[in-house]
Each structure stands twice: as C-alpha cells, then as structure tokens.
Amino acid sequence: MVSSPVRPTGTVPVSQQLIDTEAAVERSLKGLGGLQLPAGPLFGTDGIRGKAGDLLNAPLAMEIGYWAGQIMQAQGLTDRPIILGQDSRTSGHMLASALSAGLTSAGLDVWHIGLCPTPAVAYLAESCQALGGIMISASHNPPADNGIKFFGGDGTKLSSPVQAAIEAALRGQATAIAPGSTWGQCYYRPELVNRYASFLHEPLLPGLDLTGMKVVLDMAWGSATRLAEQVFVEAGAEVIALHGAPDGDRINVDCGSTHLEPLKAAIQAHGADLGFAFDGDADRVMAVDAQGRVVDGDYILYLWGKRLQEQGRLPNDTLISTVMANLGFERAWEKLGGTLVRTQVGDQHVYSEMVRRGAKLGGEQSGHILCHHYSLTGDGILTALHLATLVQTLGGSLAALVDDSFQTYPQKLQNVMVVDRDRRLNWQDCAPVCQAVAAAEQAMGDAGRVLVRPSGTEPVIRVMVEAADAGLVDRWTQHIVQAVTQHLAG
Predict the structure, then answer these.
(1) 15 alpha-carbon distance from chain centroid
(2) Contact between 443 and 476 (Cβ < 8 Å)
(3) Which residues belong to the active site?
C-alpha cells in the first residue's frame, strides 16, 4: 500500500533538536562564506564523499540540504517529503541534523528513517511518493569518511543536470527564494524500513524457502545489521551472523565486502553452504562458496543472467557491466550466445546503459548488481537473497554452479595514493605514465588489457592489468604502479 505524501499524524517533530531553521536560512542566503570547496567537481561517481569534519562538515551539509531543497522544489512538488537514511558511522548523526536543518529551512518535510541500507532510501522515495531521498554513507570507505547520495522521486540516482544545479548553487551561482512563513518539519520514521524488508521477499513468494541452507552473513558493522539477518531467517535459512551490530567506529574495518577472510573462515568453521559479505551501506555484496572461493559480481551476473536467459527474461541476452569485468567472464558469456556491454566504472553508468538498451541485468565486479525486474538501484541484500534462492531452486550448491561457469583471467588491481586531486584526475597529462601504459598494451596485445583510472570515491589511482598469463600481469602491474608512484604520488 502506498503512503500518502502528507505529514504523518501522531509523530513528534524532531526539528527542535536540529540547528535553528531561521539561522539556517539566514546563512544559506549569504552563501558559503569561508567554506572551501575543491577546485574540481564536488559530486563524484556516487554523490559527495570525503572525510567527515573536513570536506563534509555541518555547515556544508546544511548548505547542501538547503540548496537541494530549493532546486528539488523547483519541480513543483513542494508538498512531498524527503526520505533521509544513514549508515552506522558516528558522523552520520551530525550530517543528518545539518542536512535536515537545510531541507526544513527550505520548506520541506524530512522523513528520517535512521539506520538502513541505501536501497531502502531509493525504494521508499518511490513507494512513498516522496520528492526524493538522501542517504548518508561512504559505502565501503573507512569509518572516518562519509558521503551524501541523492535519489529522485522515482528511486533512481539524481540526474547529472540536477546534481550540477545543486553544485552551482553551492558555488554561489544561484539566487535563493525568499523564505516564507511555513517551515518544514523532521519526523522520525524508522518503521518504514520494515516495508522495504517486505519488498525484498515479495518477488520470490510463494516459493521462497531456504530451509536447510546454512548461510554466513558478514554485515560489516553497517547498514546490513538493520535487517539482513531478519530477511534470511524469515526465508527459512540458518544464519551465522558476523559483525552484526551497528558500530560506526568499526564499519568496514577488516570485514565486509572488501575484506573476505572472516567470511571464508566462518564458512569453513561452521560447515556453511555459502556466505555473503555486504559493504557499509549494503548496496553491494560479495559471495563465497563452501570451498572458500570468492564469487564476485562477474560470477553473480553470469549465474543470474544464465537463469534469466533460460527463462526467456533477458532481453537480447545482454548483460551490462563495466571496464573492470573479467575477460574470462566475457568470453564465457559469449559462448552462451550473449553480449556483454562495458561502461565506465560507476553504477550510474551501468544504469544509464541498461535504460538505453532496455537491458534487465547489469552491475559491477565489486558486487554492485542491478536487476530491473525487481529494483532500479543496486541492492546487496536483494542480490544475496536471489542468489541463495537460485542455488536452492537448482538443488545443488553454489560451488557446483561456480565449477560449471568459467575461469577468470588473472587480474591484478593495485591502488596508488595520489593526494593531489588535479594530478589524480588528469593523470593522462603525465607522459611517463602514459608511456608505461602503452608499453604494457603493446607487449600483451590481444592477450591482455590495462585500465588506469582515478577513483571517484577515494584519493587513489587504480591500476588494473589483466592477461591470460599471470606473469605478464605481475610484471606490467609493477611497471605501471612504479611510474604512477614516481611521477604522480610524490
């Protein structure tokens, strides 16, 4: 049942706990003042991200909330709320309060749902007929970082033109609408997350039954702790929970989707059938089979895509992935008669290409999977639930499915810290680095490939080399990393 986009009755406004709204408006009308914004774009591949208290501080968050409210209201839907969620980071409450102050000073109501996965914000923005949604999270980044992700009222990432308009306003290139006599209010609505939990089960009913399956879930001290275990237990699975309480000081630290050793050890210790590790905001997932092998986004796309293909539910037998997708995956999918289309790294690029081609399944090697049969955004818990159901339906094991899929080409990804943003973003202006890349590409020919790219979420340059020969991978990765370190990192 769809909620009416009106202010709820019987709930207590929490705006008195926030920064005074009149002061918020006065400051917003004056602009950013002494706040320092980076010379490059503020919005990266997944919203605004940085170290909490440095780039992402309360004054900037309040400005972001105010100007986002102003610009989103220009769509003419001023009677609709903004859905606001957060992961477990200790800086999340500070940013939530500041964002809420800005939004309410712009005249918008805020429905704060508290700790939740990022896809819950996207789902509720659409199902509650909200003006949009905002998630406070730095995904897989360390605890000291945080971020602000925006969603439109349709549950998709906010479009680039709207993001650009918000950033232009933050840089003093917009005029605020004079404040009226009505202020928005902030309401605490954690019960809405239960609606999202029901949504995860609905597509698999009435046949959803994971009885007899033993599953390990690594929830990374983050957003997945809100309901991942609940969702699997209600489906009938026996669950072993790791890092299963919210802890903002330990979120992603040696656990979760980027640190799989604890998950592998727990699967072996408990004799589990499989396991899943989520990132801090639970919009991505990595799986591990009973043999301890990592089942990343490439394998998930292959297995889920093959099932949809067999059911006649995969338009043009096409999968959308990124430049990071493994060559072994691509060649195996082509043997099934399918087509793999690559995009730039970033789920918004995958989403855009899926829409353009009418594709239904896409994602990233990192475990960010989008299946438009069920959701318009990446969802780690939904993906894990569907993969577990696939294993149960086929009556075998995840290990057996992996055995029957493909062998990955040796691939090495190494991050090089490059603090200088301009150097990082414009690495192609560095002749020695370009020469190192060209030498590697010429030496490997069609047997391998090189990808060098600046991260959109961290101060690093990522160097990836992939080839049929592991020796070539090691040699040329070292060669390129050395060039980046010498000429860009210093």
Answers:
(1) 29
(2) yes
(3) 139
Query: Residue 51, class by beta-carbon neighbours within 10 Å (0-12 exposed, 13-18 middle, 19+ buried)?
Result: middle
**DSSP H or E segment with residue 443:** helix 431-444
Q: Could you identify the residue written with the tokens 């959109």?
A: 456
What is the residue-level pLDDT of the chain in tens, covering all 490 positions? 344 444 444 443 433 333 343 343 344 334 444 567 887 888 887 889 999 998 899 999 999 999 999 998 887 667 899 999 999 999 999 999 999 999 999 999 999 999 999 999 999 999 999 999 999 999 999 999 999 999 999 999 888 888 999 999 998 887 766 556 678 999 999 999 999 999 999 999 898 999 999 999 999 999 999 999 999 999 999 999 999 999 999 999 999 999 999 999 999 999 999 999 999 999 999 999 999 999 999 999 999 999 999 999 999 999 999 998 998 899 899 999 999 999 998 888 999 999 999 999 999 999 999 999 999 899 999 999 999 999 999 988 999 999 999 999 998 999 999 999 999 999 999 999 999 999 999 998 877 889 999 987 789 999 999 998 899 999 999 999 999 999 999 7
DSSP-H helix ranges across 378-429:
380-394, 398-403, 421-425
The amino acid at residue 186 is: C
* Rounded Cα distance, 85 and 99, in Å: 11
Say yes or no: do domains 15-190 and 411-487 share a fold: no
Helix (H, G, I), strand (E, B) or coil at 27: helix
- CA distance readout (Å), 325 to 57, 321, 457: 36, 6, 19
Residue at 256: amino acid letter? G
DSSP secondary structure string, 87-112? Answer: -S-TTHHHHHHHHHHHHHHTT--EEE
What is the rounded distance in angstroms from the CA atom of residue 345 to the CA atom of residue 45?
Answer: 8
For the chain, the domains span: 15-190, 196-403, 411-487
d(CA 336, CA 390): 19
CATH topology of domain 411-487: TATA-Binding Protein (3.30.310)
Q: Under CATH, to which class is 15-190 assigned?
A: alpha beta
CA-wise closest residue to 379 among 167, 163, 145, 203: 203
CA dihedral 118, 119, 125, 131 (to 10 degrees): 50
Q: How far apart are CA 163 and CA 220, in angstroms?
A: 30
Distance from C-alpha of 189 to C-alpha of 174, rounded to nearest angstrom: 32
The pTM assigned to this predicted structure is 0.85
CATH 1.10.287.990 fits 196-403, yes or no: no
> Three-state DSSP class for 281?
coil
Q: Is 155 left (phi over 0), alpha (psi -120 to 50) or beta?
A: left
